[in-house]
Amino acid sequence: METKRSVQLRASAENTVEYLPVESREAIAERLGVPPELIAKLDANENPYGPPPSVTTTLASLTDLHLYPDPDQRRARAALAAYTGAPVERIVLGNGSDELIDLLLLVSIEPGDEVIVPVPSFGVYLSRPPLFGARVVTVPRLSNFDLDVDAIEATVSSRTKLVFLASPNNPTGNLVTPQQLTRILRTGTLVVLDEAYYEFAGQTLQRFADEFDNLVILRTFSKWAGLAGLRIGYGIFPPRLASALWRVKQPFNVSVTAQAAVVAALEDRSWLMQRVMQIRLERGRLYRALRRYPFLTPFPSHGNFILCRIHDGRAHELHAHLLRSAIVVRRYDDEWLRDYLRITVGTPEQTDRILAALDAFR
Question: For the whole model, what pTM was predicted?
Answer without folding.
Answer: 0.94
